[in-house]
Amino acid sequence: VQLQASGGGLVQPGGSLRLSCVASGDRTEFGVMGWYRQAPGKERERVASISRGGNTVVADSVEGRFTISGDNRKNTIYLQMNSLIPDDTAVYYCNAGAGRINSRGRYWGQGTLVTVSN
């Protein structure tokens, strides 16, 4: 399984960005996909996850601001990030696996940097 993430960049506080992640390979290996992030000096944390059936889990810290969605035909997930704040600055990683929606998958994308700053 390979994951290709894109969409990061520099945005001002209050702005929006949309991340995309395309999965390729054995579809049975990525029934659950999601986004994690890691800020400098901090541990990697889950942002949101989605199952192929459409169930989602979103971290409390981004609830109401970020939305995860997916397109099964394209093997792609999206993270729409609105009302961004400086604390959202991090490298965002796409993650995929065959386990439960609350579990961390075994596959990782290359990461895309999101910087929220004036």
Share in helix = under 10%
Globally, the shape reads globular
SS-based structural class? mainly beta
Biggest sheet layout: 7 strands, mixed
Distance between the termini: 37 Å
Low-pLDDT runs of 5+ residues are none
Number of strands: 11
Supply the number of helical segments.
0
Any overview of this molecule?
The chain has 118 residues and is mostly beta strands. Helix content is 0%, strand content 51%. It has strands at residues 2-6, 9-11, 17-24, 32-38, 45-51, 56-58, 66-71, 76-81, 90-97, 107-108, 112-116. The strands form two sheets. Strands 2, 4, 5, 6, 9, 10 and 11 form a seven-stranded mixed beta sheet that branches. A hairpin with a 6-residue loop joins strand 4 (32-38) and strand 5 (45-51). It is globular, with a radius of gyration of 13 Å. The chain starts with a strand and ends with a strand. The mean pLDDT is 96.
Brief sketch in words of this structure:
By secondary structure, the protein is an all-beta fold. The chain is built from no helices and 11 strands.
SSE blueprint:
Blueprint: E1 2-6, E2 9-11, E3 17-24, E4 32-38, E5 45-51, E6 56-58, E7 66-71, E8 76-81, E9 90-97, E10 107-108, E11 112-116
Parallel strand pairs: 2-11
Antiparallel strand pairs: 1-3, 3-8, 4-5, 4-9, 5-6, 7-8, 9-10, 9-11
Tags for this entry?
single chain; mainly beta; 4-stranded antiparallel sheet; 51% strand; 0% helix; 118 residues
